[in-house]
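A quick aside before the break. I want you to see a complete sequence-to-structure record at least once, exactly as it would be stored in a machine-readable document. Don't worry about memorizing anything.
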Amino acid sequence: MKEKSTKGIWKVISASSMGTMIEWYDFYIFGSLAVVISTKFFPADNPTAAFLATLATFAVGFVVRPFGALFFGRLGDLIGRKYTFMVTLLLMGGATFLIGCIPSYETIGFLAPVLVLILRMLQGLALGGEYGGAATYVAEHAPVGQRGYWTSWIQTTATVGLFISLMVILATRNILTPEQFDEWGWRVPFWVSIIMVGVSYLIRKNMDESPVFAKAKSEGNTSTNPLKESFGNRYNLKFVLLALFGATMGQGVVWYTGQFYAMSFMKTVMSIDSSQVDTLLGIALVLGTPFFIVFGWLSDKIGRKYIMMGGMLLAILLYRPIYKQMYETTSVKNKTEIVANTKIVSELKENKKQTMDSIYTTNKEYTDGTTFLEVKTVSLEDGKAKIVDGKPKIETKTTININWDDKWALILLVFIQVLFVTMVYGPIAAFLVEMFPAKIRYTSMSLPYHVGNGIFGGLLPAISTYLVINGKDAGDAEFYLEGLWYPIIIASVCFVVGMIYIKNKDTKNTHI
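That is the input. The structure line, written in tokens, reads:
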């Protein structure tokens, strides 16, 4: 009987995980390509502003996730888990595919960022309904005392989705020339998603409804108004707020710091070659992903609370030392330049606006194998540097290719951050499911999860990047660490609330 039950759960895990992984892939393609997208859908006059606008658009997808949680959570508690996350899968896949079809800013002007914004909002709404459904569906199939282990498989899907997005982008870059990728190849990862969505739809189509929900429905114990019962009931609302401020808020910022901010930091602040960042981040994710299962399993043995709080505390204490070490590891100020090999080339080149630019290219090599490329583009007007806001208009792009010793150092430092992620994220699905009754579970757990991850976590790349830029403009010697104050403060508040108010339940005797 036990063997049959396990087989049944693996079928549920496989179907749920594949769909959820694809939705995360769709959602994160945008973030993984943020640097490229900023040049396609936003005005190119100010690259920094364009990148911040891209991060803000990326963040919008997170901000609307709670609304998706409310809308689809209500549907899930009314009509069932299965059909609701079938709809979210198709909505996500369609929106992702269409982002890859939108003409650039140069072609259709401000309509381009507007369309991207709308589709990004649809992605956020879809993801807001997907996760709660998948986590609830798996948890309601899992045996008592093993909920942390089985739901932790769903927890791997966000990281696996990010990993696959990086690998698809890396493969596309390697197949195409840099010019082809920049012109149209960046759209390929968006188009690929439609195939994966189709396969996942066929798999999910044959799934059965959750036994817990089916039983509640047959007995007439489903909710007629999930929103009112979830948030209008003071007793249940207390647990919704505790889930948010004592768990998901801190979990959200740790998740996005350890994976997305780490990627953005290496590409934009450390100026490391984009393909190298994707590779080393991919390796760190592969090494770290099994620990979602480890900490999910461990939470069944010792409880969820102390594992999640431990992950937050380690992040709070170690983020600044980790990021300082990351920055110092690859900084060319700490390396010895081979001066004889330095090359500086200047040329005049016509730009897309059919005016002339003066381009200065500097190539440097260092004794440890690091290479440095700096391209300065000076916009010209009547043969002189164009003046904008009282300053010459100069765009500087730096690309650093690092050696394998530095790569492995960064892989280790990112891997440590991914471990923090697995500690806070591995047990949290089981933790949330166990907090709420079946008839309003989808709605009640989805909202705090998506506010914590969507708003507090999703805004992190934009806020932290803005803080770094401000610190740099202010002349702060350690400007690159300024962005870390946001996750440290949010995680600290969450840690205090969680330690005081969350109880460490006996998971072996917790029925749902």
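Two observations worth writing down. The first strand starts at residue 343 and ends at 350. Residues 36 and 128 are 26 Å apart (CA to CA). We'll return to this after the break.
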